[in-house]
Every structure is written in C-alpha cells, then in structure tokens.
Amino acid sequence: MYHRVSDVSDGTDPWSLCVSPTHFEEHLQVLSRQAHAIPLAHLTQSFKRTRKRQVAITFDDGYADNFYNARPLLEKYGHPAVFFIVSGAIDSQREFWWDELEQIILMSDRLPHTFDLTIGKTKHHWDIQTTTDRCKLYSALWEILSKLGGSQRREALLHVAQWANHLFCSRKSHLPMSSYELRSLAKGALFEIGAHTVSHPWLSRLPALEQEQEIANSKQYLEDLTNKPVHRFSYPHGDQSDETWKIVQRLKFSSACTVVQEAVMPNTNPLLLPRFTVSNWNGLDFEKNLLNWLTQNYET
To answer: Where do the domains of the chain lie, and which CATH numbers do they carry?
Structure first.
C-alpha cells in the first residue's frame, strides 16, 4: 500500500505517506527480481493456481503525484497497479483536509499560545509553547476532525485557520488528481481505478445509509468519469464493520482492501484483503521487508 510518490520538499509528512521517486524506482526494481507484480484482480484467483511470489501494488487517496511520478515508473517496469480515489477531491484544487491541517499547525511561523475549540457540547483547550505542543495539537485536531462530517469539518478547519491567521494556499505537490489526470491514468493498460468513498470518512461510525451513499456515489462518479466499471474498493483508514463490507458486497465490488498487515492467503475474504504499508525505504530495506512478507505467505 502506497499513498504518495514525492519528495518531502515543502511539507513535514507527519503520517509518513511519501515515498521518494528514487526509492519507489528501487522498490520496483526489487519487485522485478523477487516477485511477480500482478493486477489486484488476479491476486486471489491466481493464488490457487501457482506458488509464485505474487504482489499487487495499490495506492490510496488519489494524489496527483501518482499520475506524474508513480505512473511513468510503473510503466517503465511494466508493473500494474490499482489507484483508489477519493472521488469528492477530484478537481477540487484544494489539498486533502489533513494536509491543510498540517500547513496550519506544523508549518506556520508563529501560532498563538493557546487555542480553544468547541465541537457540539465538548470544549477543548490547548497550550502551545513548543514544537512538541504543536505536534500534540496536530494529532489531537486530526483525531477530532476525522470524526466529523464534511461540512462540520470544513467549518472547524476554517476556525483553526482563522485562529492561526492562516491563508489557505494549495501546494501543487499535495493536490489530488484532476479529472483529466484521472481519465488519462485510467486509459493505461496497466492501471485500474478503484473507489475510496466520496469524502474519506470513518465508515463504521456512519449509519448504514450514509455508508452506502459514500461508497455507491464514489463508485458511480468514477465509472461515469472514466467510462469504465469500478470493481475494487479500499476502506478509508482501513475502517469497516460487518455492515460495511456487506454493503460493498451488495454493490458488487469484486474485492476490497483493508490496512491489516498480513499476507493474502487462499482463504482470505476478497472483500477484506490485507495489505502491507510501504515506507520511504531504500531498495535494500524494502527488499528485506518484502522477503519477510512473502515468507509469511509460504510458511503458512
């Protein structure tokens, strides 16, 4: 599981989402030597027919750097990939909310020394004196904002920005894909577009109807945009309940990905596929981790 292929040149990358293009190419070189990269669509079926070391490459969220940095390298090495897209972010020309929050809290030159925020009936207060305090504030606000609905989150984020006297300025390096970029990516013979909801919520915290709307509307929008069927889904944050994956099943997705760090096995539920998170390792470190993951598969 990847998110971004980009150098961290104008951000702090608090969630370690970035893999540099140099390291990403080293990863692809390792895969060429040590495994067989196949489409996610083939992973569970082919497992039953072969004992080859097989890997499926996935990307979550839909950052534009997937198109500009990851796509050419994947094509160079002939490795397929599926890109799970937050459909509501397409053409927004705004960063994802967690990146905007990073700008405000972690990158502002100065912040006021105290901050108060009221969400519903809950009042929050923070004292900000040190860099550590900033990091704690970022983590706390991320946790609070991630649980809010889209309009309530935007309102809270605006309140945070006003407190910090911050003017939003979208960084080109952090933008989600445009509809043009996504359609161009979808045309590639190696690539598949998957759904990742409309607004990237914690699905299990939503009523069943809202969950279905988030998933179904994302699927429909992406199918209309790319003129291709969308068969695969990724749960935002890896979060799901029994009701969630049953909705995914009812909407006729063929497979869906979690963030559980395990190998895919013959008896793995295709709607609850585990994935290993890839960090910004060099080729040698990536190879060590890859071989460890593949060993899990073959020793079981």
So the answer is: 4-92+174-299 (3.20.20.370), 97-163 (no CATH)
